[in-house]
TrEMBL record:
Matching Pfam families: SAP18
Gene Ontology MF term list: transcription corepressor activity
Name of this chain's protein: Histone deacetylase complex subunit SAP18
General function of this protein: Involved in the tethering of the SIN3 complex to core histone proteins.
Biased composition regions of type Basic and acidic residues, renumbered to the chain: 27-37
PANTHER family given in the database record: HISTONE DEACETYLASE COMPLEX SUBUNIT SAP18, SAP18
Disordered: annotated segments: 1-37
InterPro entries to which the protein is assigned, alphabetical: Hist_deAcase_cplx_SAP18, SAP18, SAP18_sf
Keyword match Zinc: no
Recorded superkingdom: Eukaryota
Family statement: Belongs to the SAP18 family.
Amino acid sequence: MAETARRQGGGRPLPPPPRGVNQPPRPKPEPVDREKTCPLLLRVFTKTGGHHSQEDYAVRGKEPKDEVQIYTWKDATLRELTDLVKEVSVAARRRNARLSFAFVYPDSHGRFIVKEVGQTMSYPNRKQPDDSKTLSELRFEIGDYLDVAIY
């Protein structure tokens, strides 16, 4: 009864379900018309040797200092993002550099979660499995951060 009342507007709203838990698979998203669709601001934080920790994102306004702001669309692939990171990071330009991507987003308690979503190579000899994954396929939501570890 109380849950029904909450859903009908009384009381506190229920939190959203955790990402990726008991959710049906999404259909492949339509490509974005980049001429007509406004890009989103993607805040990218890079670090050599590993990902930033959850504690690095704990205080709003005191995120890690190594930030790159990229305007892109939800149909951007990890390969596109790799090439953009290489433009600003010397470490990412190394011939054998591996880039690991993670989304950073708040959980239902307001604590930030760092969730790895894919890896690419700076200069791949062959196509990597994660190269063609898009932000929307990986369930990126506007407002999430992108944490990139460069190995």
